[in-house]
Amino acid sequence: CTAVYRRLYRNRVIHLLALGTYLKPELLAYLQRDGIMQKDKGTLGKILQKVANLNPKDNSFSLKEHLFQTLQNNWLGYTEIDRQNLKLILSRKPALSQNATSSSQATSLGPSERDAP
After folding, report:
1. DSSP sequence for 20-49
2. Are 58 and 44 in contact (CB under 8 A)?
3. Domains of the chain by start residue, with CATH
4. Is 0.85 surpassed by the pTM of this model?
5. Helix (H) or strand (E) holding 63
6. pLDDT exceeds cutoff 50 at 110
7. What is the number of other CB atoms lying within 10 angstroms of the CB of residue 21?
């Protein structure tokens, strides 16, 4: 159960970072709004090491390029505006523009297949 939750938590972080760059306190605020548990706040650093690039100038985090391929346009945590923004972001990435149309296929996968690294 914990492994599944951590995978979902990681997925939430990835989908947030796909929309832009964030400072760690901003990410924590969004995740708390989404209902992360107090004990999980400490694991954010480990997740960010794996899925994000740190900008040393302002200590902000952005999603690693290869993870844009794993995004789901219709992820439940996105608002309609978020979905439109993601579509715009993906269209600006030449290698991913072909995958943007096939990202809806990811929803047909089971949770363990969707969230697998």
Report:
1. --EEHHHHHHHHHHHT--GGGGGGHHHHHH
2. no
3. 2-92 (1.10.10.2670)
4. no
5. strand 60-63
6. no
7. 14
